[in-house]
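ok here's Bax inhibitor-1/YccA family protein, seq below lol
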Amino acid sequence: MRTSSNPAFKNLPKGGYADFNYGQPAGGAFGGAQAPTTPKQAGRPLTIDDVVTKTAITLAITIGTAAATYIIGGPQSMALVLPAAIVGFVLALVNVFKKKVSPALVIAYAAVEGVFLGGISYMFAALVGGSGIIMQAIAGTMGVFAAMLVVYKTGAIRVTPKLTKWVIGAAAGAFTLMLVNLVAGFFVEGGLGLRSSDGGLLAIGFSLLCIGIAAFVFLLDFDEADRAIKSGVDARVSWYIAFSLMVTLIWLYLEILRLLSYLQND
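and the structure came out like this:
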């Protein structure tokens, strides 16, 4: 079994009712004894409708709280950015490492991230002098998501172990560079220049790179969800899948929003 690029999928059950390799001989992907020939169900099996419904619910909650925070505007919205970012990060870690699926935690994550996105979107709109950048970022995010779904469904790009390793490595490298740039910013103005407020070729190039990586992460997310459905995992796992897709969507939106701010500042 391939390693997922998204840590949320690491909580997909790997034994009992959700053994992705049931029916394989001993020493297969998981090693050890032979997996059962049929998965044991703890509940009804996961369907594509479950994934679509739960993803739609979490997305609607995020959009709702983001819109409310954006409408509040002013210092109030901007003051919520940092607290919401911290709480959202903690909730994400809890969702990743919690052993059992918790719809309440996924919903809480979606709501808090909406507050964060609403506040930071207001900041970017104020920075460039207009709210048009927000609609452009939303349209760009949905466009990339839809395009990668078509690419996955048509098989134009196949998710192979090699591709998975490349995408995971690229994502890990990008986040490492972000962290190094953040730390460097405490010692040198602008850090490494990857997140320069006034843009620049390096900052624009890095944002484009992150957008490309996030787009390919969608392929891995779709593949994990597809294999989970085919493996007959419990329907409650759809909340994990929705959480995973939301993590990627939020990252992509922020990168597109940042890129648009660079281009409008030029």
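fwiw Residues 197 and 262 are 8 Å apart (CA to CA). kinda neat tbh
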